[in-house]
């Protein structure tokens, strides 16, 4: 028992990947969808009031009259995509969660919205069209490894038309500096987010060099043990600008969040608007 707990409780190597795609796990993906659709919870999506404010601001800086074809990367259940479509964009949403995409398709049908959804890994996306505008919202970019970020940034660049724009947000150094290392555990006798059966969850929060954090949950149940890793790279403004310009983007402006607040070093997020 002691030896079996060591891999669960020790700090994993940088960018260790989860053994299974939990976003498509039958139980976990259901819990994730519930979290996405909770208007007052910020664990998976931001609060709906902020999303409304954000969508309005995006329309102002990249109006659909000029940037009509929009690619929403990591669209989830379509929360932003539907708002974009209602504003006049022609929207394509891409996500690697089958449950989220299925929900988004049905929701768009119910609302009579013409949105094209793709169940696809955006790390390997190869789409048959180019876009005027692309978005990657709620700090998904920083959840990737250094190599995967370059892959995504390059793929977006190649999927934009000349003059096309890319808007994304990341966590800042303020977030990294406030991140607390700790280890906790909990008993979930009636199941919970990670498993429908009873289990014990060992939670580890770790800081790494290069401004990286990890939130790890290791689930131990009657069927075995598995660890889930949620990585985040936190950025300075200069780091983010360099990753964008290295693949050819021009920086239009930097903001404090995805709703256009003024950039400040004490903001927990940074948003950047790029142009091809």
UniProtKB/TrEMBL annotation:
This protein's UniProt keywords: Methyltransferase, S-adenosyl-L-methionine, Transferase
A Pfam family reported for this protein in Swiss-Prot or TrEMBL: Methyltransf_25
GO biological process, any: methylation
Gene3D superfamilies linked: S-adenosyl-L-methionine-dependent methyltransferases, Vaccinia Virus protein VP39
Keyword S-adenosyl-L-methionine: yes
Keyword Metal-binding included in the entry's annotation: no
Superkingdom of source: Bacteria
InterPro entries associated with the record: Methyltransf_25, SAM-dependent_MTases_sf
Molecular function terms from GO: methyltransferase activity
Ranges for domain Methyltransferase: 71-164
PANTHER family recorded: METHYLTRANSFERASE, UBIQUINONE BIOSYNTHESIS O-METHYLTRANSFERASE, MITOCHONDRIAL
Protein name, entry field: SAM-dependent methyltransferase
